[in-house]
Design goal:
heterodimer; A: 475 residues; alpha/beta; Aconitase, Domain 2; Aconitase, domain 3; 3 domains; 5-stranded parallel beta sheet; globular; B: 7-stranded mixed beta sheet
Chain lengths: 475, 202
């Protein structure tokens, strides 16, 4: 090798570049001290962190890099009505007090910018390429769609970031998820990510950050990329990234918090340096052929238990590892599903269209395309919950709310709602839902409730027929 | 944080893979603004049936499980949400360590900040532990963090990995935030050279 080659910097992935740009200090025998550019805060995982600051007499170091909203425990009924759950109300009141006391700006229940924390960050232009973004919420991975290193943290770390704007972190492994080819009609971002997780399992990305690459990823809109990055955590990876490109810059241009004028041009020039260098090596790789994908749906009690919607539920007796076999058997007992049978045609009680995975305007448009001029099955309760007040206003401006209401669906206020079922929106024991959210864990949508995760198209189609339905039959 | 010391304990076996944090503590209990009372809500929907009646088959409702300070769980323990309420609930209940073949990243990090030791063991030792506890529910293990050693019921030992810094913090009871704040000059120096930034106050 020539001397010139040796002097050339080692090719790096975007994951490594963003990391390197945020190293504050590296002391021997300790993790790296990493700077955080954006800290999103919500009512559920922050109260004990603010309490910790009070106990220690500390301030929020950078309120200008911090923003709060109420999304998890907030009801999605008419916001002029009182919050009936007094525990939830107390949590929201305390959150507002914490933000005021510490000078943290926040979008309260009545703000026209309120919404799910992972919807409002990108929407307001707070999430930008090359940033480090954290939140006390595992779906912070969503923001990786912009080429940000974004990951969920616990409440102790929420306190660390509030106090110091830094975190002690160890470098993750890099994992390339390459998706090439053209998706078939009726197959989308949700199907890509559910397919990935069904292949690698929900622990497959543990210790890693995903980078999604390939022609199929490049052809996706920002909202679709967010859907994919959002569920990186369901594949075990704390973060998932897509390198920024013109799609990213077009989405960001003109949004509230992005730089304007010459500063914008400077920012874009810097962002163009972020994509992975040619020849950079990943610790792990997987390739997915987008053209071979079918709409995906989950049948079990974790997001890795997914199948093409035209397929059948797997049989535990075909699995050799005893713990794995027991886990699948336990899941099928909980779901009360027979092995070896298709899910298509299985009765559904509730359809939930919403969550940080699928509550953006393009998701609502997809659902509306199916619901327009049709009626939901009278046996099905259908909830459409926009991800933010801004999404809600946009949907109403386009008349989507009328389509939903005329079809017989319930059009709600913005929040996490039945994804996490802590605000009163929940399944009854034994009920089945087709849900556009991200987790089908036991009881996730209400104690005893049973969740089939799928795309907005599949959810809307199943709302019409009252059974699990391949949306391509209604397109 | 309290200093983590060597101890010997019975095991509460939970032979299920991919136990997620929604099972460890269901989301409806996250409306609290304190850390109090979470131990009573640990594994609530597995521990209690209708009308909050204890489920007699669940390990924590059996005398041998109730006495354990070590939880023996299936692979990929703690996956799902980032809620730190999960390790808070486990420690308040009385657990000091969880043994598995792997842990989800966020849960593992949260546990280390709360004196709850995630112990990763090889698959054969994991199987041997489940077999030992099936043969004798009173079987014990000894957890020695300083030497990173787990002594199995048959007297053999396995070593387990742990991040050096996390080990130091747990053994010495070091407060991680205090450690970070010592580096305020480095943080200020970094901030002085940052180029791009948002301003949420604008």
């Amino acid at each position: 090798m020539s001397k010139g080659n040796d002097a050339r910097p080692k090719p790096r992935t975007i994951i490594e570049k963003v990391w390197d740009n945020h190293v504050v200090a590296e002391r021997a025998g300790a993790p790296t001290l990493l700077y955080i550019d954006l800290h999103l805060v919500h009512e559920v995982t922050s109260p004990q962190a603010f309490a910790g600051l009070r106990e220690r007499g500390l301030k929020v170091r950078r309120p200008d890099l911090t923003i709060g909203t109420t999304d998890h425990s907030i009801p999605t009924h008419d916001r002029s009505l009182p919050i009936l759950d007094k525990v939830a109300e107390a949590q929201i009141t305390q959150f507002e007090k914490n933000c005021r006391d510490f000078g943290v700006p926040f979008y309260g229940p009545h703000s026209d910018k309120q919404g799910i924390v992972h919807v409002i960050g990108p929407e307001q232009g707070l999430t930008q390429p090359g940033m480090t973004v954290v939140c006390g919420d595992s779906h912070t991975a969503t923001h990786g769609a912009f080429g940000a290193l974004a990951f969920g943290i616990g409440t102790s770390q929420v306190e660390h970031v509030l106090a110091s704007q830094c975190l002690l972190q160890t470098r993750s492994k890099t994992y390339e998820v390459r998706v090439d080819g053209t998706l078939k009609s009726g197959v989308g971002a949700k199907d890509i990510i559910l397919n990935l997780i069904s292949r690698i399992g929900i622990g497959g990305g543990t210790g890693c950050v995903f980078e999604y690459t390939g022609s199929a990823i490049r052809s996706l809109s920002m909202e679709e990329r967010m859907t994919i990055c959002n569920m990186s955590i369901e594949g075990g990876a704390r973060a998932g990234m897509v390198a920024p490109d013109d799609t990213t810059y077009q989405y960001l241009a003109g949004r509230h918090y992005v730089p304007k004028g010459a500063a914008w041009e400077n920012a874009v020039a810097l962002w163009r340096q972020l994509p992975t260098d040619e020849g950079a090596k990943y610790d792990k790789r997987i390739e997915i052929d987008a053209s071979a994908l079918e709409p995906m749906i989950t049948f079990g009690t974790n997001p890795g238990m997914g199948i093409p919607i035209t397929s059948v539920v797997p049989d535990p007796s075909s699995i050799s590892d005893p713990l794995e076999r027991d886990s699948l058997g336990k899941a099928l007992r909980y779901m009360d599903l027979p092995a070896g049978k298709p899910l298509l045609g299985h009765p559904v009680n509730v359809v939930f269209i919403g969550s940080c995975t699928n509550s953006r305007i393009s998701d609502l448009r997809a659902a509306a395309k199916i619901l327009k001029g049709r009626k939901v099955n009278p046996k099905v309760r259908v909830m459409v919950v926009p991800g933010s007040q801004q999404v809600k206003q946009q949907a109403q401006a386009e008349g989507l709310d009328r389509i939903f209401k005329e079809a017989g669906a319930d059009w709600r206020e913005a929040g996490c709602s039945m994804c996490i079922a802590m605000n009163g929106d929940q399944l009854q024991p034994g009920e089945y839902s087709v849900s556009t959210s991200n987790r089908n864990f036991e009881g996730r949508q209400g104690k005893g409730g049973r969740t089939f995760l799928a795309s907005p198209l599949t959810a809307a189609a199943s709302a019409i027929t009252g059974v699990v339905t391949d949306a391509r039959t209604l397109l | 944080m309290e200093k983590f010391t060597t101890f010997t304990s019975r095991l509460a076996p939970l032979p299920i893979d991919n136990i997620d944090t929604d099972q460890i503590i269901p989301a409806r209990f996250l409306k609290t603004i304190s850390k109090a009372g979470l131990g009573d809500q640990l594994f609530f929907d597995w521990r209690y049936g209708a009308e909050a009646k204890p489920n007699p088959d669940f390990i924590l409702n059996k005398p041998e499980g109730h006495a354990a300070q070590v939880l023996l769980a299936g692979d990929n323990f703690g996956c799902g949400s980032s809620r730190e309420h999960a390790p808070w609930a486990l420690t308040q209940y009385g657990f000091r360590a969880v043994i598995s073949t792997s842990f989800a990243d966020i849960f593992r990090g949260n546990s280390l900040k709360n004196s709850l030791l995630p112990i990763i063991v090889p698959a054969d030792a994991h199987k041997a532990l489940f077999a030992a506890i099936a043969a004798d529910p009173a079987a014990t293990v000894t957890v020695n963090l300083a030497e990173q050693k787990l002594t199995l019921p048959n007297g053999s030992t396995v070593t387990f990995p742990i991040d050096e810094f996390a080990k130091y913090c747990m053994l010495e009871g070091v407060d991680e935030l205090g450690y970070i704040l010592q580096q305020a000059p480095e943080i200020a120096a970094y901030e002085a050279k940052r180029t791009l930034s948002i301003d949420t106050l604008a």
